[in-house]
Amino acid sequence: MLEVTPMAAEVINELTSQSEGANDDIGLRFALATEQEQAALELSLSEVVDGDEVVAAPAGAKVMMEPAAAQYLDDKVLDVRQDEQGNPAFAIARQDHQEPQA
Questions:
Q1: What is the pTM for the complete model shown?
Q2: Which domain holds residue 24?
Q3: Is 13 within the bounds of a domain?
Q4: Beta-carbon contacts of residue 92 (< 8 Å; ≥ 6 apart)
Protein backbone atom coordinates (compact mmCIF):
# COMPACT_ATOMS: atom_id res chain seq x y z
CA MET A 1 0.00 0.00 0.00
CA LEU A 2 1.15 3.53 -0.75
CA GLU A 3 3.04 5.08 2.13
CA VAL A 4 2.69 8.85 2.69
CA THR A 5 5.44 10.72 4.51
CA PRO A 6 4.54 13.31 7.18
CA MET A 7 5.92 16.10 4.94
CA ALA A 8 3.74 14.99 2.01
CA ALA A 9 0.71 14.84 4.32
CA GLU A 10 1.42 18.40 5.47
CA VAL A 11 1.53 19.67 1.88
CA ILE A 12 -1.68 17.78 1.02
CA ASN A 13 -3.41 19.38 4.01
CA GLU A 14 -2.22 22.83 2.91
CA LEU A 15 -3.50 22.26 -0.63
CA THR A 16 -6.89 20.94 0.45
CA SER A 17 -7.42 23.75 2.96
CA GLN A 18 -6.76 26.33 0.20
CA SER A 19 -9.07 24.73 -2.37
CA GLU A 20 -12.48 26.23 -3.11
CA GLY A 21 -15.24 24.65 -1.08
CA ALA A 22 -12.68 22.90 1.10
CA ASN A 23 -14.14 20.20 3.29
CA ASP A 24 -12.95 17.07 5.05
CA ASP A 25 -13.87 14.88 2.07
CA ILE A 26 -11.32 16.46 -0.28
CA GLY A 27 -7.91 14.91 -0.73
CA LEU A 28 -5.17 14.28 -3.27
CA ARG A 29 -6.37 11.87 -5.96
CA PHE A 30 -4.20 9.80 -8.27
CA ALA A 31 -5.52 8.49 -11.58
CA LEU A 32 -3.64 6.62 -14.29
CA ALA A 33 -3.92 8.25 -17.71
CA THR A 34 -2.81 6.48 -20.85
CA GLU A 35 -1.64 8.66 -23.69
CA GLN A 36 -0.18 7.13 -26.84
CA GLU A 37 0.67 3.85 -25.13
CA GLN A 38 2.41 5.59 -22.22
CA ALA A 39 0.96 5.65 -18.74
CA ALA A 40 1.18 8.77 -16.60
CA LEU A 41 -0.12 9.61 -13.16
CA GLU A 42 -2.54 12.50 -12.93
CA LEU A 43 -2.96 14.39 -9.66
CA SER A 44 -6.00 16.38 -8.66
CA LEU A 45 -7.77 17.65 -5.58
CA SER A 46 -11.00 15.70 -5.41
CA GLU A 47 -13.52 13.86 -3.31
CA VAL A 48 -13.56 10.07 -3.23
CA VAL A 49 -14.94 8.44 -6.38
CA ASP A 50 -16.64 5.03 -6.21
CA GLY A 51 -13.98 2.34 -6.47
CA ASP A 52 -11.14 4.52 -5.17
CA GLU A 53 -8.72 3.14 -2.62
CA VAL A 54 -8.25 5.60 0.24
CA VAL A 55 -5.04 5.91 2.26
CA ALA A 56 -5.26 7.54 5.66
CA ALA A 57 -2.10 9.62 5.78
CA PRO A 58 -0.48 11.37 8.76
CA ALA A 59 -2.21 14.46 10.17
CA GLY A 60 -5.55 13.48 8.64
CA ALA A 61 -4.51 13.99 5.00
CA LYS A 62 -6.39 11.87 2.48
CA VAL A 63 -4.95 10.22 -0.61
CA MET A 64 -7.31 8.54 -3.04
CA MET A 65 -6.29 6.30 -5.92
CA GLU A 66 -8.35 4.91 -8.75
CA PRO A 67 -7.81 1.12 -9.05
CA ALA A 68 -5.12 1.16 -11.77
CA ALA A 69 -3.18 3.89 -9.96
CA ALA A 70 -3.51 2.01 -6.65
CA GLN A 71 -1.99 -1.08 -8.25
CA TYR A 72 0.92 0.95 -9.65
CA LEU A 73 1.51 2.80 -6.35
CA ASP A 74 1.18 -0.28 -4.14
CA ASP A 75 4.91 -0.47 -3.28
CA LYS A 76 5.67 3.26 -3.43
CA VAL A 77 6.23 6.17 -1.04
CA LEU A 78 4.76 9.63 -1.64
CA ASP A 79 7.13 12.34 -0.45
CA VAL A 80 7.82 16.01 -1.11
CA ARG A 81 11.00 17.50 -2.50
CA GLN A 82 11.83 21.08 -3.44
CA ASP A 83 11.95 22.01 -7.11
CA GLU A 84 14.52 24.41 -8.63
CA GLN A 85 12.55 27.43 -7.37
CA GLY A 86 12.28 26.04 -3.83
CA ASN A 87 8.60 25.11 -4.16
CA PRO A 88 7.32 21.79 -2.88
CA ALA A 89 6.86 19.08 -5.51
CA PHE A 90 5.51 15.58 -4.95
CA ALA A 91 7.94 12.73 -5.52
CA ILE A 92 7.25 9.02 -5.75
CA ALA A 93 9.87 6.44 -4.82
CA ARG A 94 9.98 2.72 -4.15
CA GLN A 95 9.44 1.67 -0.56
CA ASP A 96 12.67 0.55 1.06
CA HIS A 97 11.69 -2.62 2.91
CA GLN A 98 14.79 -3.94 4.55
CA GLU A 99 14.78 -7.10 6.57
CA PRO A 100 15.59 -6.47 10.24
CA GLN A 101 19.16 -7.30 11.12
CA ALA A 102 19.55 -10.03 13.75
A1: 0.84
A2: 3-94
A3: yes
A4: 41, 73, 76, 77, 78, 79
